[in-house]
Design a protein that fits this description.
Structural class: alpha/beta
Largest sheet: 5 strands, parallel
Shape: globular
Number of strands: 5
Number of helices: 6
Radius of gyration: 18 Å
Helix content: 40-55%
Distance between the termini: 37 Å
Amino acid sequence: GSSPTTYAMEIGHTIYYTLESIPRDGGVLVFVPSYSMLNEMETEWEEQGLLRGFQLRRGAVVFEPRGGGQQAFDEAKNEFTDAVDSGGGGLLLAVFRGKMSEGISFNDNYCRAVFCVGIPFPSTKDLKVQLKMRYNDSRSKVDAGYLSGSKWYSLQAFRAVNQALGRCIRHFKDYGALFLIDARYAE
């Protein structure tokens, strides 16, 4: 029998069918909240044949490397930009708050669409996050203008989304489509 469709495959199909309406030679960026989700997508897309479909539709499919230092990062970025330069387009999958999502300009044809999958809330298991939230809660009780811990926490997530979306439209005449894939964006 057929197994139920996983979240990674649902996201993959959503992106795959949306690509039909995005110029073939342009780059497309996909941002996800974690490396584990990125790995899951890569593995399942490979196993289910969807990765091959993306390669046929978009040329190079590049996943942001986890670790590996500057050289691995540069190789991945160059593989993507070379694919776009060759006219075959490209699909780059990366992590919110990762190197690809901050500080790199994918202007003009390097980015004709950005897909933001999920909302990248910081890990509540991270001690720094716990302490910051606790600090903000105590500070907001004495200073009405100070953000509570939960408001600060939400703000961090949407700041990361804005960083990712900002990879796309970089100047006055630039253009691209922005897709927010998560029901919570409608709230």
